[in-house]
């Protein structure tokens, strides 16, 4: 399993999963995303976005649209996506990374702290309002200093052996699934029963 930058050819896959998960796709650009990929089967397992807001008072970094596909959850995929995004922000010189999330407990395990809305730069306060009116009514602002970011060891270990959970077998459909009583049904053709 590894995390790589998204490519243009990933755009349709990203948009499909962002929509399916009900995530924020505002000002979508595939090049802002990273994708977790299973190196054995080349299957995409998760993704996230690093978004820079350029304002008159400087630039601000926001992590958004972080998602992990169902069969891959609980295996450190999201942790490594977030780690890659925070690392990118640090490499770009950001001393603070923000996230406007309705999953604060998830980000808190990495060192993100909740903050008061008044501590947000103006553009991010506007974004918080947009998210609350749209995809995340319960969103709260959080931030982390990239130097304080940590992935818990249990998630780092889980990521090393991450594998898609086996899909549950669909039960075989029977006459009852279609509202037919098989003991009383008559058939157009003689089935020899």
Distance between the termini: 54 Å
Largest sheet properties: 7 strands, mixed
Give the strand line-up of the largest sheet. 1-2-3-4-5-7-6
CATH fold-level topology: Aminopeptidase
Number of domains: 1
Poorly predicted tracts of residues: none
* Backbone structural class: alpha+beta
- CATH architecture annotation name: 3-Layer(aba) Sandwich
Helix content: 25-40%
The number of E-state strands comes to 7
SSE string: EHEEEHEHEHEH
Morphology = globular
User: In the CATH hierarchy, what is the class?
Assistant: Alpha Beta
Average pLDDT over all residues = 84
What is the CATH H-level superfamily?
A: Gcn5-related N-acetyltransferase (GNAT)
How many individual helices?
5
Radius of gyration: 22 Å
Keywords: Transferase
Domain N-acetyltransferase: 1-147
GO molecular function, one term: acyltransferase activity, transferring groups other than amino-acyl groups
Organism: Halosimplex pelagicum
Plain-language structure description:
By secondary structure, this protein is an alpha+beta fold. It has a single domain, classed as Aminopeptidase (3-Layer(aba) Sandwich), CATH 3.40.630. It contains five helices and seven strands. The chain has a seven-stranded mixed sheet with strand order 1-2-3-4-5-7-6, sandwiched between helices. Helix 2 (77-91) links the parallel strand 4 (58-68) and strand 5 (97-101).
């Amino acid at each position: 399993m590894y995390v790589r930058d998204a490519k243009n050819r990933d755009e349709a896959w990203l948009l499909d999963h962002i929509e399916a998960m009900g995530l924020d796709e505002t000002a979508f650009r595939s090049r802002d995303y990273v994708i977790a990929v299973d190196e054995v089967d080349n299957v995409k397992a998760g993704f996230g976005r690093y978004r820079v807001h350029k304002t008159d008072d400087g630039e601000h970094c926001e992590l958004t649209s972080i998602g992990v596909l169902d069969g891959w959850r609980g295996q450190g995929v999201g942790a490594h996506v977030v780690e890659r995004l925070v690392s990118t922000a640090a490499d770009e010189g950001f001393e603070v990374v923000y996230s406007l999330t309705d999953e604060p407990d998830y980000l808190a395990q990495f060192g993100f702290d909740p903050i008061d809305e008044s501590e947000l730069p103006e553009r991010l306060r506007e974004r918080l309002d947009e998210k609350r009116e749209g995809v995340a009514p319960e969103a709260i602002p959080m931030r982390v200093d990239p130097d304080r970011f940590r992935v818990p060891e249990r998630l780092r270990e889980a990521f090393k052996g991450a594998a898609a959970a086996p899909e549950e077998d669909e039960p075989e459909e029977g006459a009852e699934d279609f509202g037919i009583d098989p003991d009383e049904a008559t058939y157009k053709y003689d089935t020899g029963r």
